[in-house]
Predict the structure.
Amino acid sequence: MARYRGPVEKLERRLGVSLALKGERRLAGKSALDKRPYAPGQHGQRRTKISEYGLQLREKQKAKFMYGVSEKQFRRLFKEAARREGNTGSNLILLIERRLDNVVYRMGFATTRRNARQLTTHGHVLVNGKKLDIPSYQVRQGDKIEICEKTKNNPQVQRSIELTAQTGIVPWVDVEKEKAMGVFTRIPEREEVVIPVEERLIVELYSK
């Protein structure tokens, strides 16, 4: 299945949770989920009982839509997570967290992961001094991520950096806001990654 390109706030209402898909609207309390905290459509306010499979599928959808990965990419990441030692669910989340577009977002250079992916694919991101336009690149410990010189003063990038005073920056990156540059200092622990996803249910779904 291709990456979803429709109205993202409908997704949040359907799944019943904020997936950080709208940046400033979410921070300002203006998101559709805040205004209408129920599923879209004529029967959105009806209570429905979700099956075990439905719960598992919903958790996978949350992760996919939040990080902006396709079904094919997600399945590939799951296979890699299962191949590695340790907890498969935790491995999966940490692999997705290490995607370049997500790290650009975590450093505060974009208000959403979708914007971070766009910055990356358009060649505005440097990794260790070299332009890298692959959003799925797995960032390694010690990698330096930087917005290229001609884009550092872009109003959207500057506004994103300003908003980090409100949102904060995760502890596994070290960012120099004035230079629009940061270092991925370490791979985070699963407990540090605060997201509304129960990866255990994703593992159960793929293990059937």
Remarks:
- The beta strands are 125-127, 130-131, 144-147, 173-176, 181-184.
- The mean pLDDT is 87.
